[in-house]
Amino acid sequence: MVRKSLLSLCCVVAFAAGCTHQKVEVNQIGDADLSCPDLAKQIVDLKILKSDVDEKTGFSGRNVGMGLLFWPGIIVNEMNGSKALDLANERSSRLITIYEKRPCDKAIMASEDQRYQDVMKKKKEDQAKAQASSASSSNVKQGTTPENKTTKATAVND
Questions:
Q1: For residue 59, what is the DSSP state?
Q2: CA distances from 93 to 37, 42, 66, 71, 82 (A)
Q3: How far apart are CA 87 and CA 91, in angstroms?
Q4: Which helix (H) or strand (E) holds 38?
Q5: Least C-beta-crowded within 10 Å: which of 16, 68, 77, 82?
């Protein structure tokens, strides 16, 4: 009985640990000393972080999986996601304020924005590949691959 309780507690802790999101400190030592390129990089890194949190909250595969295995994990995931987004937004606002007070070259932010676009494009491509891979593996399990259809048609014609 004690082992079952201990095992249950370990499972709860493991699932809850999977519900965390990367959180950032709003005010960091050295913010005022960051260069324009460093500020622009951090601002874009925060945009990427916010995108990652958005992907893992709401009606996501992560929440559906947690709902099937451990429904309280959905609540924890949403609360942690909300807090992570709030902190990232505050940090981003702080860095943008510092950036705008400086005589930074607009090309620096344009370059970082292009990096953001490239990262988002790669994420979409990776998601499409994962979905295609998932779909093809389910076709193989069902025996409905194009190769199988061709083989069956050839066998009938003989």
A1: S
A2: 16, 11, 32, 34, 17
A3: 6
A4: helix 36-56
A5: 68
What letter would DSSP give residue 58?
S
CA distance 156 to 158: 6
Write the DSSP symbol of residue 32. G
Q: What is the pLDDT of residues 57-79, one digit of tens each?
A: 655 555 556 566 665 666 665 67
Structure tokens at 84: 């992570």
Q: Which residues contact 24 (CB under 8 A, 6 or more apart)?
A: 46, 49, 84, 87, 88, 91
pLDDT digits (tens, 9 = 90+) for 5-56: 444 444 444 444 444 556 678 888 999 999 999 999 999 999 999 988 877 6
Tokens of 116: 């953001």
